[in-house]
Amino acid sequence: MKFDKPAGQNPIDQLKVVGKPTDRIEGPLKTTGTAKYAYEYNEEVTNPAYGYILGAAIARGTITRIDQAAAKAAPGVLAIVTAANAGPLQAGKFYVSRFLAGPQVDHYHQAVAIVVAETFEQARSAAALLKVEYKKQAGNYDLEASKEGAQPPNPGPYTPPGESRTGDFDGAFKTAEVKIDRSYSTPDQAHAMMEPHATIAKWEGDKLTCWCTIQQINWGVRDLAFILGIPKENVRLISAYIGGGFGGKGTVLSDLVAASLAARAAGRPVKLTLQRPLMFNNTIHRPKTIQRIRIGANPDGTITAIGHESWSGNLPGGMTESATASTRILYAGANRLTRLRLAVLHLAEGSAMRAPGEASGMMALEIAMDEMAEKLQMDPVEFRIKNDTQEDPEKPGRKFSTRKLVECLREGAKKSGWERRNAKPGAIKEGDWLIGMGVAAAMRGAPITKSAARVRLDSNGRITVETDMTDIGTGTYTIIAQTAAEMMGVGIDQVQVKLGDSSFPESSGSGGQWGAASSTSGVYAACIKLREAVAGKLGFDVEKARFSDGRIILGDKSAALIEAAKGGELVAEDTMTYGELSKEYAQDTFGAHFVEVGVNAFTYEIRVRRMLAVCHAGRILNPKAARSQIIGAMTMGVGAALMEEMVVDKKVGFFVNHDLAGYEVPVHADIPHQEVILLEDLDPTMSPMKAKGIGELGIVGVAAAVANAVYNATGIRIRDYPVTLDKLLRVV
Amino acid sequence: MKEENSAGHISRREMLAGTAIAVTTLAITKVTGVEAGPEPQAVTPVVSAEVSFTVNGKVQKLEIDTRTTLLDSLREHLHLTGTKKGCDHGQCGACTVLVNGKRINSCLSLALQHENDSITTIEGLGSPEKLHPMQSAFIKHDGYQCGYCTPGQICSAVAVLEEIKAGIPSHASADLNSKVAFTSAEFRERMSGNICRCGAYSNIAEAAAEVAGA
Amino acid sequence: MKSFTYQRVTTPVEAAAAIAAKPGAKFLAGGTNLLDLMKLQIETPTHLIDIGRIGLDKIEPTANGGVRIGALVTNTDLAADPLIRKDYGILSRALVAGASGQLRNKATTAGNLLQRTRCPYFYDTNQPCNKRVPGSGCAAIAGFSRQLAVIGSSDACIATYPGDMAVAMTALDATVETINPAGKTRQVPISQLYRLPGKTPHLETTLEKNELITSVVLPAPAGGTHIYHKVRDRASYAFALVSVAAILFKDGTGRIAVGGIAPKPWRVPGAESLLPSGAKPFSAKLMEGARPTKESEFKVNLVERTIALVLKEGKS
Ligand SMILES: Cc1cc2nc3c(=O)[nH]c(=O)nc-3n(C[C@H](O)[C@H](O)[C@H](O)COP(=O)(O)OP(=O)(O)OC[C@H]3O[C@@H](n4cnc5c(N)ncnc54)[C@H](O)[C@@H]3O)c2cc1C
Ligand code: SF4
Ligand code: FES
Ligand code: FES
Description:
The structure holds three protein chains of three kinds.
Chain A: E1 2-3, H1 27-30, E2 49-55, E3 61-67, H2 69-73, E4 77-82, E5 104-105, E6 111-117, H3 120-127, E7 131-136, H4 143-146, E8 163-166, H5 169-175, E9 178-186, E10 198-204, E11 207-212, H6 217-228, E12 235-238, H7 254-266, E13 270-273, H8 276-282, E14 289-297, E15 303-314, E16 335-344, H9 358-375, H10 380-386, H11 405-416, E17 429-430, E18 433-445, E19 451-457, E20 463-466, H12 476-488, E21 495-498, H13 515-538, E22 546-548, E23 551-554, E24 557-560, H14 561-564, E25 570-578, H15 581-584, E26 588-600, E27 606-616, H16 623-642, E28 648-649, E29 654-655, E30 674-678, H17 702-714, H18 725-731
Parallel strand pairs in A: 1-25, 2-13, 11-12, 15-16, 20-21, 27-30
Antiparallel strand pairs in A: 2-6, 3-5, 3-7, 4-6, 8-16, 9-14, 10-11, 10-13, 14-15, 17-18, 18-26, 19-20, 19-25, 22-23, 23-24, 26-27, 28-29
Helix pairs in contact in A: 9-17, 12-13, 16-17
Chain B: E1 10-15, E2 22-26, E3 46-55, E4 58-65, H1 70-77, E5 96-99, E6 102-105, E7 118-120, H2 122-125, H3 133-141, H4 150-165, H5 184-190, H6 201-212
Parallel strand pairs in B: 3-7
Antiparallel strand pairs in B: 1-2, 2-3, 3-4, 5-6, 5-7
Chain C: E1 5-8, H1 12-21, E2 25-28, H2 34-39, E3 47-50, E4 59-61, E5 67-70, H3 75-80, H4 82-87, H5 89-96, H6 101-106, H7 109-113, H8 165-171, E6 175-179, E7 185-189, E8 212-218, E9 225-231, E10 242-248, E11 254-259, H9 279-286, H10 298-315
Parallel strand pairs in C: 1-3, 2-3
Antiparallel strand pairs in C: 4-5, 5-8, 6-7, 6-8, 9-10, 10-11
Helix pairs in contact in C: 5-8, 9-10
One FE2/S2 (inorganic) cluster binds near residues 85, 86, 88, 93 and 94 of chain B.
């Protein structure tokens, strides 16, 4: 099915099942420990050996020798894989990282060897017996120092052009009556999902099955086949449950390659998980940025010039953190400039993490907006409202499909008691605590992409949906069941959903906030086909019939669905594809965050006291799951604001704090009760579901709202994240 | 793992002074899949030993590598995979189980430390057909997303309510010498050893409040 | 983790004897620190003596009005003990400010005293570290040192002692009791338990090889107001940037030990006479000779500020 004109009325609009705050259908499995994650297929793989990765001890150089004698002689060791016996390996098509070092080492903790043994304990201790000699080579680990030589990135599917200009930015900024010109930085951040990357790999002849942790199954199959140099048809990936991803498990990473190679070498299925202390330097992360923002305005607050430049670094050929993305479209202003620059760094690969680009960029832009509002002596909510735009500021005439940023800001101001905020920083004190409030806008693109599904109606009248879509905590199982139930007119308990298996039709996968909207649309398309099949079988006109209560109904004629499957299961499959509507309309999601913090007047410890998000993000398929996505993202935003930083040791060339004690993410005690308001929205330009993604929107702007609240509490403006007490104390 | 898989086999059984534990030293010398090294080094023998404990009411006897953690004995030997490994270093709480009613991180405990202990894992609290009230409350309040930290959160939450009942103080208790009660602040502080990167904290607190009757 | 043999003992005497019999042996109490380090091969004992069931899990009054805490009492039980809560409030407070509920259920009094540093370079065996491999150098001094020591450190090592409980015990003038393989017991004042790194950062305590901690004795209650304030970025489940254990008296005098800033709980009894004059003069004396790095410099200021906060709380 091709979606190329705005959706009209369709079965989803009944909202008997869709749009309800249904409990997750897989809840009983997840809460009892019976949902199976990659490393847990003990019935399917009864005789596994264990793999363990040894990471490189240097950041850059060459391996001159690996003495394997002791490791080979260690008890239980079955095989040792290194570049020398792994056979030719390519890099994948999304990440540039090579998953096995040798002779060249590209970054710290890049896999140097995989040891396979009978048990986990044996594999781990044997890995430590490998003696690796290196020749070190100087590397570049310092973004600050590399700014000068940074280049415009090569445009690609996930990289916007290196520069965008509208009007005359330089002229307008020069003559602006009120202006700021500020520098900001965001640090390298880790996804730190709770389930480490893990794989069980099993070869049967030249066919490879892997139970793994991959958000984009189709990318995974493509990449693993390409990396190993085997036909795609020979690869089957299964990721039925994934313990969090946030972009960090987009496609193939070292665990999958290592387990596959190890299983081949050992002639046995191999299970392998990345040890937590290896993950930070071995896999991918959200890269550090340095950003410069210039805003010029008239004294009445009208922005006349807005410029945003961002520098990031990566391994040669790696992606750019497109931190300027939101600035191109969020606020009005006739004269505009954005610029991206990319330096070569020899740290682990930078890549997508929850709202890539937008999250980092808005950490800076939304502080800049706060600074500008203050300079203009305007309320920061009003300043943002003043500069709202209802069309793409770079392409006048191109409308937003829907955009209620102003309503988000107004509603949030009302509900958060914004009027209690004192514009003068440092003015409110409760006991030993300085109290401040902060606001930030949120926006995130609403991409939607091709997605397929298969739907079965069996002789018991039950519906089964199969698609290689994944549920990484996003509620996908549930919204897909809701979609199928609504389409087929059955109760949600009549629907079974099977996900995350590459033998199922190819879906959008989970990433880029496109998963919910795309995958449910694919299910919609397949259900349209199944409705046709049912109607055909039972002699109904599908255009006129309705599906309700397990029946197909037209006038006073009706029949149970089960009748259609009497002669055997009905199966329908289809793919939803898209026309040009996303070019015609700017399709984005919007929101506003309001945060109250307390800062201890003695120690400058910062604690978040209240949080509110108001979001506008298309039809909400399941308000319960959508709200959870938002509060989770808000939590991650608090981490970004106050604690998360992979610290680069510029001498050694690695992220120093590479475990979960050193890399702090928020804990229960950091997070207050969180409120979320979801504004009504239907976006018929997206798909028949009229829905958009929401899981990434929730993080955008949060950190800036926190930083602005800290400023409001203390009068100290920190422009380098995370905002920590030592930075405040340096100024006090 | 079952050492029978390996070539070599039991070479020595010894009783160490002062213990009743049989310690078995397995020298596994046969290596397949790799060439024999040029200068074979001293083989560090694998040592295995027996341990017996109760898991979810069932007595389990294992002969395992002394290095096996309680966590790996549950996941890899007893195939009770409800207990999760998030970090293996005491830094996340995913591996939380109840030992003799008290919650601990099973990744930082050797299986051998638990001779005769009574262990309850998430599977022992309830099943999809018969949920524990805390499990039901997590579902109702959407106290999870990816589900990976969830068994640990639930085991911890169940224990936290008991700890509050038993009057154990926490960092959030205003007064050390008066009775502790369930409050949001108490709960959040006590649960802080269970990281949820999906960020379900606010919902988890509501789920537990319902179970606590607060 | 390297292979090891394992042995369970049932009495302290047996434990002390067992360790002498096996070179390369270590005591295993809760295991929450030792196993963590063994997984990374920072510790590589060849034999473990599980002392988890040797008794020593009681908290009992002493003849002279103090209290004796068994070495195997868990952090949870110690924090919750009515006597400790009533008369040694900072100890309860310090304990519940440390680690997590799960860890405190497992962690023991002796194990907690002897936990090793959390310096990130100590934890990464690819990096030079004089504490882990004597003579290999110190990667932290020119590296990431925000968390590390600002005083008492040396050119060989700037690691901190990371624990909380010992900070409170230092303010309480606790004494550590031990027994050695020959059956000889002795008492070590906690102020003399930890060594400064000097040129030998791998030598962390003054305990003899194979000495078993049997208990910690607290003197009769000192009275006063007990405050433990731990400063950290994350609200919980994090080691201290700075922590202050204070016993404050109505007349303005008191005792203060500080954690998170030195290779041992930092207390300068000579400075305490300045307490009545306020946080500034006291902190100046306490921090005399501080040698922070650029990254850890804020801690010097933070110590004074935290003490000011604690003194203010003490008055109210
Ligand atoms: C993620 C994390 C966060 C933490 N946060 C904190 C914190 O904020 N504050 C804090 O204070 N601590 C914290 N800790 C440390 C924790 O408190 C210690 O790991 C624990 O107290 C150690 O006690 P244990 O009984 O488990 O020691 P073990 O690991 O069993 O032993 C530690 C050492 O002491 C030796 N030993 C044990 N008992 C004796 C004895 N009786 N005589 C002689 N030697 C003995 C052992 O041989 C070993 O070398 C944290 C730990 C982790 C993993
Ligand atoms: S500070 Fe001490 S523990 Fe840290 S690297 Fe240096 S020597 Fe090692
Ligand atoms: S796995 Fe045990 S605490 Fe993380
Ligand atoms: S539910 Fe995913 S980490 Fe908690």
